[in-house]
Amino acid sequence: MANKKTTNKGKRTPAKAKNVATVATGKRRETPRERGPRGWFLPVVESVYTDLRPRTVDGERSLTTTAVPAGSTYRSMLQPGLGEEVLRPAHQNFWMDRLTEFKRRKTQVAARVPAAAARGLAPPAPSVPGGINWAPLGPSVVLNGQAEGEPPVAGRIPGIAVAPGGMIVYAASANGGVFRSDDGGVTWKSLMDAFDLAPTNFASTSLACGAIAIDRNDPQRVYVGTGEGDTYSLFKSRIVNALPAYRGVGPIRSDDGGATWISEPAASGSTDLAGKAFFALAVDPANRENVVGATSEGLYQRVVDGTGNAHWFLRRSGVHSSVIAASNNGVTKFFAGQWGGQVLESSDGNSWTVVGTGFPNGNVGRIEVAAQIGNPDVVYAFVADTNGLVLGVYRFDAGAGQWSPIANPPDVLPKDDNGNSQGDYDLALAIDPNNPDLIYLGGSYFNDPQYWPGSIWRCQVTKNGSAYQMTATSIGVNAHADVHTLVHSPGDSNSLWVGCDGGLFLNRDPQGTGIFKACNNGLSCLCSNFFGQHPTDPGVLFCGLQDNGTARGASGGIWKSVNGGDGGYCLINWSDPLQVLVFANGSVYRATDGGQGHDSWTETKFPWATMTEPMASPPYNPANASEASLVALGSGRSVHFSTDFGASWLTDTLDLPTQASIFAITFASGTRLYVGTTGGEVFRVDKAGNSWQQQRVDNAFAGALPLQGLICDIAIDWADPSTNSIYIAFGGTGDYRHVWHFDGTAWEQRSGPAGGSTNLLDVEHNAMVVDCLAPTNVYVGADIGVWHTSDKGQNWAPLSNGLPEAPVFDLQIHPTKRLLRASTHGRGLYEFPL
């Protein structure tokens, strides 16, 4: 499977691992990489937008040079030494167009259910009664997470909306849609899994959320801004003319508490918000139809016309990272922060002016604003500088008419080794609803080298003469790091919610000695990368998670964190299931007790070239148990081998003749494997005596692979007993022909007919698997959906049946139980019976 999207920041690094060994060679290089969220997000961007292009006549790498604008800082994470030239520009409606086509395909399949059933395809519908459906495997929550006290964790939450009383709570997740709790965060249900009931309704297709708001007088009215603002600057810093948001489809609305959703378009003359990012939404307390959105495109106002239809009007251009509304005596004021600019105010959401004087006018980055909902006369601004460090916290008092800096802000955004921090990604501010002199700040992490927990601070503001200062107390170490939002329950000083990279947490006494406690049971929005499965017990699973380590599942939705850092590939020895290997942050960790906990592991460090280096072992073969101990790991251009399942690693490595990095490894047997690279090369590797010999096959003389791009995955064609035949899946964009077949001599596209309704979409295809018992059946997992062909790739159709439309990163068939399993980046694991 493709090495994907993880970070090297290493929350709760596996410091407890025993017997650390290092595989050191002078031949390989480590790719320089960003710290923090850029470490996992930039590889996401590059693998999605790698240019899938025609191969040159000589079959070697060639790149179309793209002019790099002055000041561009992007460098390739996957192809060292290269920059923007490896990337393909993508238009604003890229995801909207492809999601629309995906919906159309599902509708077509549903209309021909009998024909689909005859070909072994299932109609796309959620939980078809009596039908074949995808079923969730979890994790619905992961115990023993990465914060002090080892709390249960979930996935990234950039937005929270709480109804009066604190019982009805909405959580908007980064790539898993919106969840609702009716019991104050004790349990949750997903609100975006029923979109297939009305497959032409596009509103809830995107599970990438950036902002959420409700009508406090009627919490059934919900507004969601799709496209995640917190990751905006990560996109902006790297690609010319490409999307500034991931999978955003604009604003959507629900009038029934999330049971159904309605898309709301931009007004004529205003830039469409599909492909843009939302940071915040503010509902006018005096008129719930009047809503302002802070987006990567500008400030937008929702206006309802005389026929009852709503449109969003661009009122102010430029990136705006926050917006709030406050009302006194029925008179509303909106306040918004412009990225790199000033704080602005409006009495109607239409016309905007700068607030006061004295606000900093240089080195300003992201701005967060806060005010009590009933007091527009006191406004706070939390400002990061252009390097993501704290520039300052400022207070505006309407009577004074100017901004005052507040002295002694805490170290909310610790500086990294390069002198930068994460204020473009982690920046949160809240004001006590009953005390305008008490504020809360949220940032990246608290300096605890065992857990790296959340950076949340209670700040008491006092005034001495004309100067303000604050006394800050850390209160966030029991929450996960990377804080995105802080929200009080309406009017309740003793109920402070936080949304972070580890889900949702609640502090019932933030003014005193209270600690944050997890509210993540059923908040199934973890970003799963790759998984390993027990060969005979399908309930035992390991899965690598973005920013939440590696989790172990055992027959249920409640999983347990067993290793720290950022989880990648996982392997279970099919001859001895007590032996487990997992990858995290440049190391392979080995357990001999079934991977029961954080003390289970011994560590081997490797040269770290890609964020999650691919790791594989031969397919399940009980007739030859010794093959179960063979493991291959791709690191840079080198393949490392172990013959004792990672207890030791052979000194000799196989160094491939490439400047690219290994991205996919698949075994055909104990003596043959295939390797794919970020540069589009494919190698067949055979064991000859005690050594491994490689032969490049993408440039086969009889028929070279016509396209060149990122090789995300390789699957063995089990219809060929010689194992000379394979399928490959391309990442990137630029051509719909993402799946190709090699018969040992020549390549042939297997992505369906051009211009038809049974071909694949031009999106990244991350994973693929061939059914060894019925090898005409091939399955691929893409950034949009799982797809199935029953005729070896001549025709394809979506295989949905309730599978959330989060990107699919890993796809495997359980070797003994005939279960197709998918790892989604935003909604955990699912399985489908074959």
A few lines on this structure:
The chain has 834 residues and is mainly beta. The protein is globular.
Task: Characterize the structure shown.
- Helices cover 5% and strands 39% of the residues.
- The chain is mainly beta.
- It has a domain at 1-126 and 604-799: 6 Propeller (Neuraminidase).
- A hairpin with a 4-residue loop joins β46 and β47 (682-688).
- The longest helix is centred in the N-terminal third of the chain and has 18 residues, at 94-111.
- 59% of the residues are buried.
Strand order of the largest sheet: 21-22-23-24-28-27-26-25
Low confidence ranges: 1-17, 24-34, 61-71, 112-129, 195-204, 239-244
Q: Would you tell me the overall average pLDDT?
A: 88
- Specify Rg, calculated over alpha carbons: 26 Å
Which structural category fits the helices and strands?
A: mainly beta
The amount of beta strand, in percent, is 35-45%
Helix content: under 10%
What is the CATH architecture descriptor of one domain? 6 Propeller
The helix tally amounts to 4
| Silhouette | globular
In CATH, the topology of one domain is named Neuraminidase
Distance between the termini: 21 Å
Task: Give a count of the beta strands, DSSP E runs of length 2 or more.
Answer: 60
Largest β-sheet summary: 8 strands, mixed
CATH top-level class of one domain: Mainly Beta
